[in-house]
Design goal:
Layout (H helix, E strand, L loop, with lengths): L19 H22 L4 H26 L5 H25 L4 H24 L10 H23 L5 H35 L9
Helix pairs in contact: 1-2, 1-3, 2-3, 2-5, 3-4, 3-5, 4-6, 5-6
């Protein structure tokens, strides 16, 4: 009895964790502490400019990695897990830096506190729900919330850079300050709404005994 031998070349697939969308997400996660490093190793305003460029570049990958993952059918559990972590790390660390350099200005401190509280609360809620955390799917409003946060932070980083110059930059500093404050309060409002929405959806799973 003869044996059939296939001459077809084997097809090798790159590990899903090395896909470009996942690499972009990992780089975005690494960029979060990079914002702090800019202020540790560079003087202002160079540090402000470098932090702004790094933050905006990382924020753009937030939209690019998801788009590429869907287009190339490379969506993975690793990417789904790392994506929100990278977003939260970027936002929280950047807000800590901005709040510190603002001298704990209440116009920044209050919305920043709301945003950071919500991020910790929702993360804890997802961890508690475990396997049922899938019920807390990311909504379109939550995506707008993230966009508003990143826009506000980028504007406030730009304000930090402008304030070291004179002349026309003085007007730019004033405009950037108020635009950043307005955007940050809008982001805080969306943050509260989406946080309440997640809590409402989780309520059916919070009434029973601890598993």
């Amino acid at each position: 009895m003869g044996v059939l031998v296939s001459c077809a070349k084997p097809v090798y697939y790159a590990p899903i964790m090395l896909s470009l969308p996942n690499i972009l997400t990992i780089l975005r996660l690494a960029a979060a502490p990079g914002v702090v490093i800019m202020f540790l190793y560079f003087h202002r305003p160079a540090a402000d400019w470098f932090a702004l460029i790094l933050f905006v570049t990382a924020a753009l990958t937030d939209f690019l990695d998801g788009y590429l993952a869907r287009k190339w059918k490379q969506e993975s559990k690793l990417g789904a897990m790392l994506d929100p972590i990278a977003d939260k790390a970027m936002v929280v660390i950047a807000l800590l830096v901005i709040t510190g350099f603002s001298g704990m200005d209440p116009y920044i401190l209050l919305p920043a506190t709301v945003i950071m509280f919500r991020e910790v609360f929702v993360s804890g809620l997802r961890e508690f729900l475990g396997d049922t955390a899938g019920t807390l799917k990311v909504t379109q409003l939550a995506k707008w919330k993230t966009t508003a946060q990143m826009v506000a932070i980028a504007i406030l980083f730009a304000k930090g850079a402008f304030e070291h110059y004179h002349g026309v930059a003085a007007l730019s500093t004033f405009v950037a300050w108020w635009l950043g404050i307005i955007a940050l309060w809008i982001a805080a409002g969306l943050t509260l709404v989406t946080g309440w929405d997640y809590f409402r959806k989780a309520q059916p799973y919070l009434g029973g005994p601890v598993p």
